[in-house]
Please model this.
Amino acid sequence: MPLNIVLAEDSPLLRDGLVSVLTRFGHQVSAAVGDADALIAAAHEHDPDIVITDVRMPPGNADDGLRAAVALRGHRAGLPILVLSQYIEQSYATHLLDLGSESGIGYLLKDRVSAVTQFASAVEQVAAGATVMDPEVVRQLLRRRQDPLRRLTPREREVLSLMAEGRSNAEIARDLYVTEAAVNKHVSSILQKLDLRLDGHGHRRVLAVLTYLRA
Amino acid sequence: MGFLASAWPWRALAYLLSGVVFGAIAMVTLLTMALAGLVSLIVGVGAVLLLAVALSGILVTRIERRRLWLVDPDPAPDPHRAPERPGLRGWLDTRLREPATWRELSFTAVSMTALWWMDLLVLAFALGLPVLLMTSPVDDPGAWPWLVIGLCLLPAAPYTITAWAGARAALTRLILAPRDRELGRELTEVRASRARLVDAFDAERRRIERDLHDGAQQRLVSINVLLGLAGLDAEPGSPVARQLALAQGEVTLAVNELRELSRGVHPKALTDHGLAAAVDNLTTRSALPVTVDIRLPYRLPATVESTAYFVVAEALANATKHSRATRAEVHARLDADVLTLTVRDNGVGGADPAAGTGLVGLADRVAAAYGRLRISSPAGGPTLLRVELPCR
Model:
């Protein structure tokens, strides 16, 4: 189903690139703007299925894009947001995850756009309410929580990262070339070792894992 | 007898003789000017003359400081500051409001009324009296015992002269040397200019980071997106698809390298979210497990934040590279407008500021922000680095 997308990115070159990629995958970019104020106006006007925004943008050239997205989310709860950033900064990831709402959050490095197919799929996942975190965010979080993670086998750590990135068990099984049953076993072993109680699936699971890693 | 053979008695003698000559000339000149000034005060010219007398201390003491060289090898710096504005008015303004000017005037008064007279008296007693005694038998051969007494007194003259010259020089230095406060001003100015320099460097780093972010990085990412799109059109497995994938890989490497580079230049999180967030981000990339405990009530001045950040970055880099540490802690609190930052690791210690430029560079940076850096790193460890930065 084609998505109605509002896009904000201050570099015209990359903005055009993003529009090309999204259009190529059959989506409708209703507005592609270059600053945070225009983003807010466009989002109010077009009522998009998802907002994609750069973090650093005019007018302040600080984290204006991120703050605009957070404001939009406050205005319309559950509005899916995909934030693109030149850097992975935990403070931004934390900011986003702290939105605490039910669904639809993504945080990716800008370079991920160039892996066009994966990027398009990430956009669709976030629009569908999933949480998509850049592998870099997860890598940093895993490094931070080294102590309890020592109890995990290397394979289990691998599975945990993919869980945090928002993959389902089926996807993890495909990525690691193992059966889904094997993944299920890994997952329950991880939960047991980390004393994590996960009753939800999909999005809730990602949030729970990320919350655990950030704690 | 080394003293008597040295130049010092002669230098002391020259000091006192020039003191008498200069003192006499100065006294006569100043008295004349003051009298003439008082007399002609009604005509108005007198005011100028009296003003000149009031400021005469500046010239008199400048010569006194020069003369000091005769008996005191240490230079006596000028306590005056540069006039705030150019021209005679500016000069007068500054001089008349300086305490040093009035201290010099009082020294001149003492010098006119007492010091050079004392010079004269000492010379007369130490040299004149023995000479007088020795020459007395010329007129009256019966007075020969005086010759003996004179001969006995003469060897004491160098000591008397040098002793008084030394005392007078010490007194002169005490009154005429700049006060700590007056020296402090120059030091403050040097420090302020150093702080401005560091600020300028920081601004420049931020600008470079912004230029990289807005320019080269965006362009490379855009190229990579175009390559990705082109890859969609290429037939899977064809030579073109392979070439495109290769090109994408290369561009991705370039983007990553550029990102690391610009992060080292100036981390964006520091500008956007402050010290705690930036240090947090730094430690998530560090190979060493680091516990961060930074609790600050508000955002600190930009210079303090960046100084503190680079201290932590350098300290953690050192700990990772040299100390064989397995853990590190970063701790920061703001107390009474002073940021106290400590970085501790459990490594082998032996960090020596003299050995590497890193620690010296840090100390310089901290000092330019009016702060203080201390390192305790005994051989065998642990290493503790403590920085205090004022945040007025």
